[in-house]
Amino acid sequence: MGKGSVKKAQTEADVKRKAVKLVIAHLKKKVSKEFLGSEHINNWISEMEKLLEKPEFNMVEYIEMRKNLNDVIERTLDEEMRFKIRDSWYSLGRALDKKVKRT
After folding, report:
1. Quick one: pLDDT at residue 88?
2. % of the chain residues with pLDDT over 90
3. d(CA 66, CA 90)
């Protein structure tokens, strides 16, 4: 057996966490410039990163964060940014629906 041939079985939580991290990385790129209300989304991203650091994956907490993101969207006055953040909101929903691929 070669090096790295032993794979850890991925759990639903692993798959969801990885997908959420990817969404957050893309969102951070989208909101890298300052805009009216940017502090709301930046605070939300900070909270989400803290949640991702937790060893356990509590789906209820992630769903609550998605609801909070919707509130942030409503407070974002920059229309272009509101649409970009809304796209990430949809992506976050899809990330939370991810399942482990069965082989």
Report:
1. 95
2. 67
3. 9
Instruction: Check: CB of residue 62 under 8 Å from CB of residue 20.
Output: yes
| Tokens found for residue 97 | 């629906």
Rounded (5°) CA angle 34-36-41:
70
Domain boundaries in the chain? Answer: 12-96
Q: Could you read off the pLDDT of 50-84 as tens digits, one per residue?
A: 999 999 999 999 999 999 999 999 988 888 999 99
State the angle between helix axes of 38-53 and 12-30 in degrees (0 to 180), rounded to the nearest 10.
150
Specify the DSSP class assigned to residue 3. T
Helix (H) or strand (E) holding 55: none
* pTM tops 0.90, yes or no: no
State how far the alpha carbon of 58 is from the alpha carbons of 14, 41, 75, in Å.
12, 22, 26
Residue 23 three-state SS? helix
